[in-house]
From TrEMBL:
<dbReference type="Pfam" id="PF06985">
    <property type="entry name" value="HET"/>
</dbReference>
<dbReference type="InterPro" id="IPR010730">
    <property type="entry name" value="HET"/>
</dbReference>
<protein>
    <submittedName>
        <fullName>HET-domain-containing protein</fullName>
    </submittedName>
</protein>
<feature type="domain" description="Heterokaryon incompatibility">
    <location>
        <begin position="190"/>
        <end position="340"/>
    </location>
</feature>
């Protein structure tokens, strides 16, 4: 890699602070030919360098689409100067290619301020058993064990081992077996593996093969590349035991996933190190990758001092190195792996071109082995910090030195939970039924700090504020309300949706008004748990609410795809106005064209200005968010009508009877489609819908319709005359 003539002369050496990047596409193509690290990143994904000659004729007359700006960022942690160059897509003129990034940042850091891999140290593969390979892995582990105070303290004398482990030291190294740790008195240490399953066609522990796997064992040739290469790493590290989920948990009918799956926070917390098959999308991808060592090294610049850079050698680093090259890999789109990454004390990530390292002290990679420079360490350092804090909290019960999860200089635990929730829900789950349990290990530690009940992904205190969570970018998540989630979870819980969730914080100051239950008490869910380590079971019943109900008109904003509610009246008053709405999923095209009347209930509000007599009334500045079950009783307000403004939150509602009617109609349509395609209701080919057969979709919808009917009957049987039953819109 290098810098092209334009980037070197116009940005690095000119002394200018800003300018236009490449005036012609032919200049971009020239930069791609010489493999400019910046231009490849900006344009490489959409311009095929192998077809430059065929593209150049059609693109030569178009204008380039970026401007650049360089500024000093002061001093790095080693007191060396550093600069950041920001590229921004032009808002006017002709865009070169619509799919190029909107912005990109690169850091230019003096070589004396960072430590890069020595020339020749990187091998042509990430396989540590290759001749000359694995030296950096051993160095990381040695430093972590000997020099990292926090990591050494967290690794002392584990008090937990999983129920089963894979034993790698049989008489014949060509075989492995699964062992019962209690029966054999095994205390560890052990490694863990994070991997993407893909189609479950690989070896798994089941009743029918238990006697073989836990008896004489199996030959390693029966294992998939993921398992086989993880064992290669384990043996390279001199470790005898490794925990692999599908071999150590019996997830079949009559198995023990219901108990072992609840212990993930201990399994990963007490592992010696977690191995991650980061670049593999299924069991066949493996961990190891071939590479050109020179191509992944940072580009160096020799500056003569005539421009902004002082005389000497400087390195160019991508701002998003950690996110793009590691967290954007296939494994980290999986929901289960989020908690594995946050809980393991040490992690070896085998990514596409190099190995990354994580512990509670540093985050590093093979080309930056002593740790990421401060300029690009922001995201990794936050995760690293909270990982360390959670590991401390998870051992507090066994330690005489009680240490809190949140320290004096930390962000609040609420901020951590909000960030964790968004990161987790941005990932995918093969089985949506795992939605709540796959984050339970994180939730349990947060619960212990907050010292309050947890249920349905929400917390006990000030529940009305939390109900205002919403889906990020609903336009991209139009299949978010899946029947398979709807029949398992109430609609007021984010667990009932598929998609990235933004939590609503609990305000520290008291509200002027909050919704209550039917007895005037704080609204609350009901949950129970069998023991402290297991996820609480939420009792799926309607959530009673008593509060102000208003009516508005839901419509699409003319200037965007966002939604708004226009007020048509509040307690027989008509103040007018409109406000933004966050929907759970995109509306059907017909709903966008025809505005509909929409009820909503005000959850909480604060006064921003009072009328002359000091009386307060809800006003149009309420911000409706999401919704859920809400059995409500509208209550009229008295008092003067002089203007008073409020800020607050509300839920959009739909009567349960109307919602059930819609789901029954969908269920009927699915049944008719099943009969039309397959009278025997056999598995259709190809699958109908998003990864599910038509028959399975129909069964999910049938479960939902049955569950909804049960909820309606529950409320009717409770008191017979109480308020209307609603569901989120």
């Amino acid at each position: 890699m290098t810098l092209c003539k334009f980037c070197r002369e116009q940005i690095v050496e000119s002394g200018l602070s800003f300018g236009e990047h490449h005036t012609l596409v032919t200049s971009v193509l020239d930069a791609l030919r010489v493999k400019c690290v910046i231009c490849l990143d900006l344009y490489g994904s959409v311009v095929n360098s192998k077809n430059i000659s065929s593209n150049s004729h059609t693109l030569a007359s178009q204008q380039a689409n970026y401007t650049w700006r360089i500024r000093s960022t002061g001093r790095s942690r080693n007191l060396e100067s550093s600069f950041v160059v920001t590229f921004t897509a032009r808002l006017n003129g002709t865009r070169l290619l619509n799919s190029t990034p909107a912005t990109r940042k690169y850091h230019i850091i003096a070589v004396t301020g960072i430590h890069t891999a020595a020339k020749g140290i990187l091998t042509s593969s990430t396989d540590p058993s290759q001749l000359g390979g694995g030296l950096q892995i051993r160095d990381w582990l040695k430093d972590c064990n000997e020099a990292h105070l926090n990591c050494r303290r967290l690794s002392s004398d584990p008090t937990f081992v999983p129920k089963r482990l894979v034993d790698l030291e049989l008489e014949h190294l060509e075989s492995i077996r699964v062992v019962d740790t209690t029966e054999h008195g095994i205390k560890g240490p052990y490694l863990t593996l994070s991997h993407s399953w893909g189609p479950p066609t690989f070896l798994q522990l089941k009743r029918e093969n238990e006697s073989i796997l836990m008896g004489p064992g199996v030959r390693i040739t029966e294992l998939t590349p993921n398992f086989l290469q993880a064992i290669t790493v384990a043996r390279f590290l001199g470790m005898r035991y490794i925990w692999i989920d599908s071999l150590c948990i019996m997830a079949c009918s009559g198995g023990d996933f219901s108990t072992e799956g609840q212990l993930m926070h201990q399994i990963y917390r007490y592992s010696y190190c977690n191995i991650v098959a980061a670049d593999s999308e299924d069991s066949q991808g493996g961990l190891f990758r071939k590479r050109d060592p020179e191509s992944i090294m940072p580009v160096s610049i020799e500056a003569d001092g005539s421009g902004k850079l002082g005389r000497g050698t400087w390195m160019v680093l991508k701002d998003d190195l950690w996110n793009k090259d590691l967290l954007a890999t296939k494994i980290y789109t999986r929901g289960w792996v989020f908690q594995e990454r946050m809980l393991a004390p040490r992690i070896l990530h085998f990514a596409g071109s190099q190995i990354f390292w994580d512990c509670s002290t540093i985050s590093a990679c093979e080309v930056l082995p002593k740790g990421l420079p401060h300029a690009i360490d922001a995201g990794a350092s936050i995760d690293r910090h909270w990982r360390g804090r959670m590991q401390i909290a998870s051992t507090a019960a066994q330690s005489k030195y009680q240490q809190p999860l949140v320290g004096a200089y930390d962000d609040s635990i609420e901020s951590f939970w909000s960030s964790a929730l968004l990161n987790y829900t941005s990932c995918n789950l093969t089985d949506q039924g795992d939605k709540s349990v796959a984050i339970w290990s994180i939730a349990k530690l947060v619960r212990d700090v907050l010292d309050e009940k947890y249920g349905g992904g929400l917390w006990e205190h000030r529940l009305e504020e939390q109900l205002a969570w919403h889906v990020r970018d609903v336009a991209r998540n139009h299949m978010s309300r899946l029947p398979e989630l709807q029949h398992l979870h109430p609609s007021w819980s984010w667990v009932s949706l598929k998609g990235p969730i933004i939590a609503h914080g609990r305000l520290p100051k008291a509200r002027e008004y909050v919704v209550t239950d039917h007895d005037g008490k704080a609204i609350a869910f009901k949950s129970h748990f069998e023991d402290n380590d297991k996820e609480p079971v939420l009792e799926r019943v309607p959530l009673p609410m008593l509060g102000y109900v208003a009516q508005g008109t839901l419509a699409t904003k003319a200037e965007s795809q966002a939604f708004a509610v226009e007020l048509s009246g509040l307690d027989q008053q008509k103040p007018g106005g409109s406000f933004d709405v966050f929907l759970d999923e995109a509306l059907p095209p017909t709903s966008k064209k025809d505005p509909t009347s929409q009820p909503f209930i005000i959850l909480a509000s604060s006064v921003t200005s009072a009328n002359e007599s000091g009386h307060y009334r809800p006003s149009q500045r309420m911000t409706p968010r999401l919704s859920g079950y809400a059995a409500t009783r509208p209550t009229a307000l008295g008092g003067p009508t002089a203007p008073t403004t409020y800020s607050g939150i509300a839920l959009l509602l739909v009567p349960m009877s109307a919602y059930i009617a819609r789901q029954k109609s969908t269920f009927k349509e699915l049944l008719q489609e099943v009969v039309r395609r397959s009278p025997e209701q056999s598995w259709p080919d190809p699958p109908y819908g998003k990864g599910k057969s038509l028959v399975d979709q129909t069964r999910d919808m049938q479960k939902l319709v049955t569950t909804l009917g049960g909820a309606l009957n529950y409320v009717k049987g409770k008191d017979g005359t109480s308020g209307q039953l609603y569901r989120r819109c």
